[in-house]
Design goal:
By secondary structure, the chain is α+β, with helices and mostly antiparallel strands. It has 2 domains: 56 residues; 79 residues, Arc Repressor Mutant, subunit A (Orthogonal Bundle). The protein has 5 helices and 5 strands; from the N terminus they run βββααβααβα.
Length: 162
């Protein structure tokens, strides 16, 4: 059974994040424009720590999001491999869609990587914002704009060209 919580953030384009989790790890992270207005349950210590780390990252006070327990069960094997590649990237490191495909064991599957990235159930934690097109920043489905991608990368010390 999944549990959930929501919390306010410092991210300029969106004020709230909702998380779901189970005993294995976080399952989803969604961005909300306003408080969902529902009462949340008491958080297990590991979820409370994940919330604090996410708040710190979005406020520009650290980028230590690695190691937060995630539950990626039920996803396709290809999506799991793509997310494992992204989880292995370090803050400030970027990869192209083609590089992710190669590292995921599917050379030439850059478009499929794009689809996996667009369906990422745990943005920020599975750092899809670190994937760039070979000829520029590429698309970004989070909030439907590249400004959010640029802001997230800037928090990690990466500046995109104007």
């Amino acid at each position: 059974m999944d549990h959930w919580t929501a919390f306010k953030t410092e991210l300029g384009v969106c004020g709230w994040i909702a998380l779901t989790w189970n005993e294995r790890g976080l399952r989803t992270l969604k961005f909300l424009e306003e408080d969902p207005g529902l009462e949340t349950e008491a958080l297990p210590p590991w979820v409370a720590e994940a919330v604090e780390r996410l708040k710190a990252f979005l406020a520009g006070h650290g980028n230590a999001l690695q190691g937060i327990p995630l539950d990626l069960e039920g996803l396709s094997p290809f999506h799991q491999r793509v997310y494992e590649v992204l989880l292995a990237t370090l803050p400030g490191q970027t990869l192209s869609y083609g590089e992710v495909a190669l590292l995921a064991g599917s050379p030439g599957a850059a478009r499929a990587v794009g689809q996996a990235v667009a369906r990422n159930p745990l943005p920020l934690l599975v750092p899809c914002h670190r994937v760039l097109a070979a000829n520029g920043p590429g698309g970004f489905s989070l909030f439907g704009n590249l400004q959010a991608k640029a802001r997230l990368l800037a928090l990690e010390g990466v500046l995109l060209p104007c």
